């Protein structure tokens, strides 16, 4: 992995908040955008800063011809408000050519594998970001982990029909693994628990690991995807081409995919 760092802030300056770190990383990622590009537009609080920056540059005339393909209904609404022209992933005129995708991540390991989709948009994110020529990920340094699954859930999108059965099959993939658990995600609504539903009308299974995922990630990925009822999972393996990391000291580091 190659890297490049920005200059630290002046001595004595207060450390930036996590939201400020997200904004710094997002603005640095937008520097990869060139006029005429079609962009994959990510979902989440970090990607939102990139949407705002792209909108500002479009209004200033600095990015003529730029359009985006949104990864969620929330992003579609935000991008529209920011003034970013939108395109579908596929349509009567054929699929859009995505030059560059920009999105955040929940975790990034040393090989630039990612956990994404804790917000529930993993399927559309993987479809769009997998279709792009380059994928720039924006994070603060708290997202860097030794193994995927260290800091929280790895989501799996499943069809609602037979979801408890599918949950049981997912558990069998990790049968006997100490500290592993999995559950269907629910949300509170009017003081009652309801199933969380994705933009695609599906449910989310959350997988938890005591000390992260160990072993062959691609083999584990294949085992999950072979389960009938599983639509997609939130491990994005080998997809990121560049990771922009905002550090607590105010510097920015670029990590590049090994060739």
Describe this structure in words.
The protein has six helices and 15 strands. The protein has 259 residues and is of the alpha/beta class. The strands form four sheets. A six-stranded mixed β-sheet has the order 2-1-3-6-14-15, sandwiched between helices. It has a four-stranded antiparallel β-sheet with strand order 8-11-7-12, covered by helices on one side. The radius of gyration is 19 Å and the shape is globular. 41% of the residues are buried.
Number of distinct beta strands? 15
Low-confidence stretches: none
- Please tell me how large the radius of gyration is: 19 Å
Total helical segments: 6
InterPro entries: NagB/RpiA_transferase-like, Ribose-5P_isomerase, Ribose5P_isomerase_typA_subgr, Ribose5P_isomerase_type_A
Protein name: ribose-5-phosphate isomerase
Enzyme class: isomerase
GO molecular function: ribose-5-phosphate isomerase activity
Quickly describe the structure:
The chain has helices at 18-30, 45-59, 73-82, 122-131, 163-173, 217-225, and strands at residues 38-41, 67-70, 100-104, 107-108, 114-115, 135-140, 154-158, 181-184, 186-189, 192-195, 203-208, 230-233, 235-236, 242-246, 252-256. By secondary structure, it is α/β, with parallel strands linked by helices.
Task: List descriptors.
259 residues, alpha/beta, six-stranded mixed beta sheet, four-stranded antiparallel beta sheet, 15 strands, 26% helix, isomerase, Ribose5P_isomerase_type_A, ribose-5-phosphate isomerase, NagB/RpiA_transferase-like
Element layout with pairings:
Layout lengths: L17 H13 L7 E4 L3 H15 L7 E4 L2 H10 L17 E5 L2 E2 L5 E2 L6 H10 L3 E6 L13 E5 L4 H11 L7 E4 L1 E4 L2 E4 L7 E6 L8 H9 L4 E4 L1 E2 L5 E5 L5 E5 L3
Pathway: Carbohydrate degradation; pentose phosphate pathway; D-ribose 5-phosphate from D-ribulose 5-phosphate (non-oxidative stage): step 1/1
Keywords: Isomerase
Catalytic activity: aldehydo-D-ribose 5-phosphate = D-ribulose 5-phosphate
